[in-house]
């Protein structure tokens, strides 16, 4: 399926997977709104792809809603939402700075839910209309949404929550032709690790692997695959790891 005639919103599009996904959807014909906090980066990206830059902190419910409403108002409809903004602050639970937990829960869980809530009426409407008569909400989880291990307790909790939310919502709206898909990347080279505390980053880098990890474009390509399937075919869940990641 081409995405000609469709409108997409990508959150967390100022870097990494979100930026690459915005480019991939635009290449396939969608008009794309890109949302995040770093407006300079969004403006550059929107200039490249002929898209719409929206400055938004999606942890704030009014800003999450405004990002959705601005997209629909400026671009005329909303067919595809890539709910991608996220933060990963790894570390032990004991003696953790609880502020980091708040940041992860506020963005990875609540921000994602706010965007979904605001977008659903538009997606349901789009699914009744040409050109596709189907709509897509892709929630970006992680391999961390399937696994449990030391050092990732809160991040993994947020990504497990994304999985539960997505499956419950899928059951609720799938008969209305809104496809809720879960994208679960393994290790991807992005800015995600830049926000770790130095001691956590050092511990991770010494435990690091020497195999090639994924690029943002690999995940963007997989997301583009999900949203270009024919109307009768829903990709509910897609786990994509670097081949050598155990
Ligand atoms: P990046 O750090 O490159 O991207 C994160 C994006 O989220 C940025 O565009 C950032 O923009 C945005 N963001 C952060 N806070 C907010 C906020 N409050 N409101 C709106 N946007 C915000 O990392 P990735 O591209 O790797 O991460 C994208 C998603 O992929 C995340 O959900 C992550 O958990 C997931 N993921 C990543 C993996 C990896 O190995 N990289 C593996 C598995 C999953 P800005 O700061 O401008 O607001």
TrEMBL record:
Keywords for the protein's UniProt record, in alphabetical order: Oxidoreductase
Molecular function via GO: oxidoreductase activity, acting on the CH-OH group of donors, NAD or NADP as acceptor
Gene3D superfamilies for this protein: NAD(P)-binding Rossmann-like Domain (3.40.50.720)
Highest taxon in the source lineage: Bacteria
Pfam families associated with the record: adh_short
Family per similarity comment: Belongs to the short-chain dehydrogenases/reductases (SDR) family.
Name of this protein: NADP-dependent 3-hydroxy acid dehydrogenase YdfG
């Amino acid at each position: 399926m081409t995405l000609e005639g469709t409108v997409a919103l990508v959150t967390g599009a100022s870097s990494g997977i979100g930026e690459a996904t915005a480019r991939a959807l635009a290449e396939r014909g969608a008009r794309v709104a890109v949302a995040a906090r770093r407006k300079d980066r969004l403006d550059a990206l929107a200039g490249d792809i002929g898209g719409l830059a929206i400055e938004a902190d999606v942890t704030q419910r009014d800003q999450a809603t405004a990002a959705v409403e601005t997209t629909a108002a400026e671009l005329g409809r909303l067919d595809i939402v890539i709910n991608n903004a996220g933060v990963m602050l790894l570390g032990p639970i004991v003696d953790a700075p609880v502020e980091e937990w708040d940041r992860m829960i506020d963005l990875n869980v609540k921000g994602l839910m706010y965007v979904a809530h605001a977008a659903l009426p538009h997606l349901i409407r789009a699914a009744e209309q040409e050109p596709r008569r189907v709509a897509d909400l892709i929630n970006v989880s992680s391999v961390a949404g399937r696994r449990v291990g030391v050092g990732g307790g809160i991040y993994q909790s947020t990504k497990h929550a994304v999985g539960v939310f997505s499956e419950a919502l899928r059951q609720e709206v799938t008969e209305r032709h809104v496809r809720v898909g879960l994208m679960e990347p393994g290790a991807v080279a992005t800015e995600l690790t830049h926000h770790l505390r130095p001691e956590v980053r050092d511990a991770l880098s010494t435990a690091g692997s020497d195999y090639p990890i994924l690029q943002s474009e690999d995940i963007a390509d997989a997301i583009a695959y999900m949203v270009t399937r024919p109307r009768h075919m829903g990709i509910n869940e897609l786990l994509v790891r670097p081949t050598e990641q155990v």
